[in-house]
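Two proteins follow. First one:
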Amino acid sequence: MTPWNPSFACALAAALVPIALAGCGGTPQAPDSKLSLTVLSSKPHEVSGGDARIAVSAAPDAAGLTFLLNGRRIDPPLVAAGPRMEGVVTGLADGANTLEVRYAGPGGGDASASLVLTNHPLSGPMFSGPQQQPFVCRTQESGLGQPLVDNQDGIGHPVFDVVGARPVGHSKSCAIKTQIHYFYFNGDGFKPFDAATGYTTPPADLKTVTLNGASVPYVVRVEAGTINRFVYTIAMLAPSAQRPDTASGFETASWNRKLVYWLRGGVGLGHQQGSAIWFSNGLRGIERQIISRILAQGYAVASSSGNEAGVHYNMRLAEETAMMTKERFIEAVGQPKFTIGIGGSGGAVQQYLFAQNRPGLLDAGIPVQSYPDMVTQTIPVADCPLLEQYFSDEVARDPASPWASWSRRALIEGSNASDTAGNPVTNKPGSTECINGWQGAVPTVLNPVFKDPRYELVAQHYGYPADAFSRVKWTHWNDLANIYGTGGDGHAPSPIDNVGVQYGLGALAQGQIGKDEFLRINACVGSWKEPSQFVMWDAAADPFDARNMQRSANCRDPDGVPAPRRAGDLAAMRAAYASGHVFTGQRLDIPMIDVRPYLEPSLNMHNARQAFSVRARLLGANRAAARNQVIWFAAEKADQSARAIDALAVLDRYLSDGAAPAAFNDRCFDASGAVIASGTSVWDGVLNQRPKGACSAAFPIFASPRMVAGDSIKGDIFKCTLKPVATALGDGTYPEAARFSAQDHQWLERIFPQGVCDYRAGDVGRPARW
């Protein structure tokens, strides 16, 4: 480390200006009082962990610098970083801290600059709201040891004396001491590496990587610790045993000065820490292939279990965790030239929402198999079991029912269906995306009494009280109770709503179903009960969770009682927008390459329309922002890791050059990885009325139940605007061929007493500012 001193100031002056300055033995010059002090690792009001990387720029005639923290003299170790000095200031107290730098210029030209740094605990929270309890610490499962005891009040995770299995306290922050681990790449995956002996006596299967034209051992140094109660990791190449050139122990000679932030998918309900990606079950499948290629190019890779959507789906918490983890990276290693996000499914969603909610956190993104967000996915996903239960009832009533044809169900559900694909419910050929892709998704989001049975095992294993989780209500909405609120019964309000939704309207308009079937579907489809009425889901006996649906025994009868619909909570809808859990399309200031394998033939939940749902929202809210998203599709059997690496290269060039390269455009690839077509028209026919482009012809896009009912591909309407049935009967909503009778009119009125959806009039639940 090189502290700032007058002699360095003179040397810096000589390097930066052609005329030597007064105080450095040269020609006198009028004093320059310019002095700046900035924080590099975070925003000044969002510092965490008691330290911050700062930068100081001073006039070349500075005779010396003095630093004061809250009025007390400090001597932070600063090093040269181009025309300025950088270093990490430590010892910040929680709350507001004043950092001041002063220097004495020639002739009394003193100058000073100051910053107020607001520090938050490393264990959080910063802005995400109260932390959950109970909260299971999982560092031990990751092989990182038990968490540190931080209280004797019985709050949090039990901690034991390992030898005597004696309880010694509890941990509410799940913190561990920072640890360093080494791994080497053997061509297939990463294995533990002994840094003390491995460089001189390398493992037989150790592979090499080429850096700057030289072949060096493919060894990775991984720092693991806890931030915001989650496990973070920082991984960088460490191809030699040379002395580290950072105070934290990282050597940056092999670093290309760029950072990849890795994000994982899933939809979780919190109350647990998750595990680190380098430990426990390690790197998974395709992420191992991608990360190994990323590290080999010299990128650093940061991650956190708090950025795995399968651990929790609180995007405010995810944003906060990513911000704090990146702050740690900058403090430990240095400021990257840029940060690119990569991740699939829920990890891809985080990228779109970070770009919208936290500009500057990422500089570019590669969302793989993305959705615009997960909250608006609950809208069509909640329809799936209702429709599948209806079809099941119809087939049970009459095995010759037309709905015995699995592929025909796509007429109502919109998404793909197959007469030959395996079905996990029937264990026979024939299924739909609603089943193969989304079976069981609704209970894990809507059912407050349905919990992952692993929680009970965890509670027993770690010595939690038997009733530790008895008060937890296992819904996404309760998981974010600080955002959605709760009622007097402790249940959070839900935005799930299907009042006025005319299932199968598009199929009726196309003449694919008749009016009787249209009326019967809508009379019988029903809705979900209120959260307080839910019972435990029995997946084997009740695959579509009918016990938690509002149904009617005589709904098929035109004179019977239609199954009721459910009205969603307007405040919950507005809270979803206000908290940034809905991707609106109003902001996307960074380049994104939306990469996805085409999984429609597999009836996979990561359906192809989602990329265009994102684009439609962008086009509707901010057409200029839409230029920042390009869409790449590849055949399912293509090398998907290669597409992610290709996308990384394109974005690297984009950010390095400051302009979009030619390859930053829409395109699609065949199974061999060859480009089928690229350019502005390849996806024609999806969001416009032009003839299909080469990519949209090669990869057909399917719809959703709400799209068949009249919604757009945006899929962002929680609660439609309603119009009276009488208005719909006269304004062309229904095809003339339907020829509704007077009795049909009456049936429609009973099915839709509040009216039917007018999707052109917008979303009742969308706040005006959005």
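Second one, unrelated to the first:
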Amino acid sequence: MKHIQKRFILFALFAVVPFLMNAQTTAGNETDTIIITDDPLVQVPYRKVAQSDILGGVSVVDLEELTKKNYNTYSLDNMQGYIGGFTGNALWGMGDYLVLVDGIPRAANNVLPTEIEQITFLKSAAAVVLYGSRAAKGAILITTKRGKETPLEVNVRANTGFHVSKSNPSYLGSAQYMTLYNEARANDGQSPLFSDDEIYHHASGSNPYRYPNVDFYSSDYLKSYYNRTDVSTEILGGNERARFYTNIGYYRQGDVLDFGEATDNFTDRLNIRGNIDLNLNDFISAYINTNATFYNARSANSSQEGGNYWTAASTLRPNRIAPLIPLDFIDPNDQQSWNLVNGSENIIGGQYFLGGTKLDRTNIFADYYAGGYSKWTSRQFQFDTGLDFDLKGITEGLKFHTQFAVDYATSYSTSYNNTYAVYIPSWYDYNGTDVIAGIEKEGNDEKSGQQNVGGSTSNQTIAFSGYFTYDKTINADHNLNAMLIASGYQITNSGQYHRTSSANAGLQLGYNYKKKYYADLSASVIHSAKLPEGNRQALSPTVSLGWKISEEDFMANSSVFDELSLNVSGSILNTDIDIEDFYMYEATYTQASGAWWGWYDGASERSTNSKRGGNDELDFVKRKEISATLMASLWEKLLTVNTSFFINSTEGLLITPSTIFPNYFFTWWPEASFIPNVNFNNDKRVGFDFNVNVNKQVGEVDLTLGVSGIYYTTEATQRDENYEYDYQYREGLALDGIWGLESAGLFQSAEEVASSPEQKFGGTVKPGDIKYVDQNGDNMIDDKDEVYLGRAGWSGAPLTLGVNFTAKYKGFTFFALGTGNYGAYAMKNDAYHWVYGDRKYSEVVLDRWTEETKATATYPRLTTENGSNNFRNSDFWMYKTDRFNLAKVQITYDLPQSLIQNSVFESISTYVSGANLLTISKEKDILELEFDSAPQTRFFNIGLKATF
């Protein structure tokens, strides 16, 4: 508690300091100027450089400017719409990128766009080498806002909007389900389970309490929309001696659920971010950054094992229970039943008691009405500080920088866990009216009033870096820069024995001649405790060359090119990211007390069993890469182009091989292995990315069109495999390949089944089942007939596109953003589409095969068995995930100064926006469907920003 109090005192000081500083620095502000340049500074590893001096594989978004026309709620929201090479979840298809917030490894979702100045995407190996092993698959640098040399400025932004559900799953009602379940039983040679009379009563809807027909997605349980509201305030200012920035923000978001305790579900976040930059004297400057974030999420309790409302919605059949039963149905003379329900603590709305069955002593509805609630709480405190020394007294251009950070996060859950009783009614007919003539009670109502605390976690990050920089210009032509870096961090997570660690030393040497010819040599020496002694250090070198062609004499009079440059780089990065655990180089042995053999007959002995061999030569995984970047500005910046081409090979991925060691290194019984982990598998990615922007003024309208994207291929260039048939080999095919059987439609008759290859997946194959192609001609269908079917796009679709458009006219700004993904496939292999056994029936089964529909059926016959023949990966279930999304539209109006010049406001902007508005796809219904989680939503927002 003492440490927490210290942190709050620190944050309180940040709230006071701006006003104290403003009172002391008025004289300095009198000469403040704001310089806007066409060559902005971009944050790259450990420094900021002019955008024109970047040597490729780097893209940047000025989020502070972007937020003026595109308000959003997540720091990396739809960044593929602006950045070529970013798929939305990976850089250049690599996956597992590193996020650094102000130079410290932190979560991207713990910093909101209103707190961010700039986001830099480091895609190439040369761009990330100085960050060491953990950044080997790319890095995203989030730079938060800082104070400026301006008088005191206050910005207030307020938003409120509504999430509107796009679509809900379509499950069959009780009568349809019961009818088709009977059909499934008939298909399996079984008698009907439900009588025609039962089905009739469920279909009539005359008494849904006796004959339930539960629709989880009705307005009884869900709202069609819910609110999100946020407010943030920025306070900034300063002078040449000191600058400050503070951001205080709060948001609260509701939930689509609308009954019981779930009516009060919410998520909220309070953040306080602040920083101070100080010039202590002519050669020492310092800064302090702090952030505190408080998250809360309240939700109704669920007693359902491993599930919540949405998992129950996808599994609980509509005829199974009546969640609530009106008291009015109880026979007025049935005193025993009235005594039971009158003793209940959970009479809902004074009208209903909780229904159930002997098999369903709890259910999700009763949980949310009577089971209590829980609240997840998270507290995150972040602190970093740094000193910068200008060592010009030693030599001009030499500086030393150091940074130290400590982040601490805790989370826990508190809950009130109630137990409750459900009541099983006995129904009878009285003069044509349904009456409850008896009630059986299951369970007891108990509310202890005790708050339970659990799920406690804690995480800590400690980071340090110290580095020298050197910048020198000789004779106005020769520009030198260099860095010598030592850095590292450790992340400790509760419940994990080993910390996540990074330690490296880096060197960067750069030179350019007249800002025309560039050369850069960068390298890092990394360390990893995941590898055996002797292999724990490695050198990662990169070389980059650049040529600013537009500076050549032969381009001096070009009427086309304003700027034209070409950069190439070659790199070898060593990394331990793909080494999943520690001690993977060690041999593993276990001891069993009940051995299968003994030293003499009649007695068992303890045995020591080898599970894995050791490998003292286990080494780092390597990313070997060649990339080239072309940047151009044409026709006085009417058109700008930035495109990169890359070839990278990830080599030495760890496997436990099965074919490169003799077969006697492994036995199935007793299970034993002397095979070690080895560096063997190799992956290859080849692709290009692009950003193209067109800027044009037409009359009084300023137009900007931006197109970005990435296209890449992947290949497994080396694999440990030994298949019987060539078409089964993974080597040479995509890394994210989908494998399965090739289908040939549905069997139409018993004769066709008998004349076709035998399908060996269990159960009896009948008409209406899926027919498969015999790939190897052995007259049977089994796993040996699986083939490559297409790419899944695990790290992004083969082609990712983004389009953004801006039109400005006087005070109005229109902005639109679209994103697209093309070339990937997915499987309909979820519980919504794979319906068998006693699973809940969705609308997909309406297209099932029957004798009457066999000419048009697109779904296999229904079955109550496990469906092992039909419900397995095959192209029958594949679909294309190609889509184009209208991700955002916003209209902003900036009030003219003439209206506010005599007020307290410096500027006022209002805006309306819509997000996730439209999906254009052949498979739109599937892509917008969520069947075991909350529905996807469109978000409509209205906002106001005012500057004082």
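SUMMARY FIELD: DSSP finds twelve helices and 45 strands in the chain. The first strand starts at residue 41 and ends at 44.
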